[in-house]
Design brief:
about 290 residues, mainly alpha, Serine Threonine Protein Phosphatase 5, Tetratricopeptide repeat, 17 helices, about 80% helix
Length: about 290
């Protein structure tokens, strides 16, 4: 950015991005690059627009072009990390996020993405550590608090999960992601009524999000009386550690096999019956529309 006109054009693109008018922002950025054909900031800006438009291949291409011109361009690294995260390319993500953190150690979003990756892999302690680092930078970020609440629920630290949930709600500004993770946390704690409430809010804010829809339907199913009766013993298992669950399972296999088989049969039957019941309640007798 060498002139006042360049700064003005750049600011205009940023404003269009904030308004979510991405196609217009892209046109303006493409005009800008004609004036500054070797400016890495403009290449990174275009990469970010493509990222926001979910065109990840193009986003990665433009971020690579920016980094070829300026190896430590921060926005370009941010785009690269986000693309690899979205594509579930674990190794590429790990390498990219480490380099990105070296360049910009105060970008809290990197720690958030790391935490989600760790949670997917079952590395819960590492996920918690990453979230605590994110919260050191932004202590009141509701999304980070919500994900930490979910992580604590996975760790069977239910009281801490509830405490973090309350703090996240105090700072939440109607974020669908916050409601989503709080819903996951409450579901893992066995509170499906609360999960239904959170997922309903998430779907209200993002009605086309398939993952939110599925979790909302799951909450409805778990709140069906038949399913609640069948899953009543699971409420106690949730409070046990993994090794305790394993021992309970071995004991059941050795001494209570007929009852265990009966439970499995009843679970399968109740699962499909309640799933069908929820489908009829939500979508009627027709097929669900994608």
């Amino acid at each position: 950015m060498e002139t006042i006109q360049d700064y003005s054009a750049y600011a205009k693109v940023q404003q269009l991005i904030e308004w979510r008018r991405y196609k217009e922002a892209l046109k303006e950025a493409q005009q800008l690059i004609k004036q500054e054909p070797e400016d890495p900031d403009v290449f990174a800006l275009i990469a970010n627009i493509y990222l926001l438009m979910d065109e990840n291949d193009k986003a990665l291409h433009w971020s690579n072009e920016a980094l070829r011109r300026e190896p430590e361009q921060r926005l370009a690294w941010y785009v690269r990390v986000c693309v690899y995260y979205a594509a579930d390319k674990d190794r590429a993500f790990d390498e990219a996020v480490q380099e990105a953190l070296r360049i910009d150690p105060y970008e809290s979003h990197y720690y958030y993405l790391q935490a989600n990756m760790f949670n997917k892999k079952g590395k819960l302690k590492q996920a918690k550590a990453a979230l605590l680092q994110a919260l050191e930078i932004h202590p009141e970020a509701p999304l980070y608090l919500a994900v930490l609440s979910y992580t604590e629920a996975l760790l069977i630290h239910f009281e801490e999960s509830v405490r973090l949930e309350r703090i996240a709600l105090e700072h939440n500004m109607e974020s669908s992601e916050v409601y989503f993770f709080l819903g996951l946390a409450s579901g893992h704690r066995g509170d499906y009524k609360l999960k239904e409430t959170y997922m309903r809010n998430a779907v209200r804010l993002e009605p086309d999000n398939k993952q939110y829809q599925e979790e909302f339907l799951d909450a409805l199913q778990h709140n069906e009386l038949l399913f609640k009766i069948i899953l009543w013993p699971v409420k106690f298992l949730r409070k046990l550690k993994h090794w305790q669950v394993l021992i309970a399972w071995i004991v059941a296999m050795l001494f209570l096999r007929p009852l265990l088989i009966l439970f499995i049969v009843l679970y399968v039957l109740s699962y499909w019956v309640t799933k069908a019941t929820v489908h009829v309640k939500v979508f009627g007798w027709g097929r669900r529309r994608v």
